Amino acid sequence: DDRRLEPADAPAFWAVLAAAAVARPAAIVRAAGGGTDVLDLIDPARRWFAPRRGDPVVIDGVARRATRLAIDDPACRSAVGRDHYWEVEVFADTPIIKVNDRIQDRYPIVCCVAMLPAGMPTGESISERVRVPGFGFKRYRYPLAAATAAPVKANRISTALVISPTLEWRRPPGPAAA
Q: In terms of DSSP bridges, do strands 102-113 and 156-164 run parallel, antiparallel, or are they unpaired?
């Protein structure tokens, strides 16, 4: 925990992504009890991952980045059933918290998602409400985007890494028909 993804993580990462790719999101939400206390996932003092690694979680928040990542290894492609997955940075809704002398009500969580809903925007600068049903994988240290206001240590942030089959894109309602 609290490191980037390392070669020793690869077998577990690909196994969980393959299992998530065939999981039903509604079943994950039910197993998670409908929601997750995000503070358990992001506060290292709570040590959530030690006894609960792989447990179902539900993350509600705003996707700020969705990046397509190719799966190069043929065995991993075969296990996951596709040639890519998505890394989505979700700023999860939290109660008002103080992080590094800053008051905030969202915290970034990295979600590796087997597939995105059709038509969902992707790229480095998006702002889409989402719900991510998945599995808690590890506390993860990843490169920090310049615009992210979060606890920084050597240009990296420590957060949760969640692996999911997909996410629910909560599009704002369109204009009412006249």
A: parallel
How many helices (H) and strands (E) are present in the chain, helices listed first? 5, 6
In sequence order, which ranges of 64-162 are alpha helices (DSSP H)? Answer: 74-80
pLDDT tens for residues 46-79? 888 888 889 999 999 999 999 999 999 999 999 8
Reported as a single tens digit per residue, the pLDDT across 117-140 is: 999 999 999 999 999 999 999 988
Alpha helices in 86-176 (DSSP H): none
Query: Which residues are registered as beta bridge partners of 32?
Result: none
The model's pLDDT over 18-54, given as tens digits with 9 standing for 90+, comes to 999 999 999 999 999 988 888 888 888 888 888 888 9
β-strand partners of 63: 90, 128
Q: How far apart are the first and last CA of the chain?
A: 54
d(CA 68, CA 84): 7
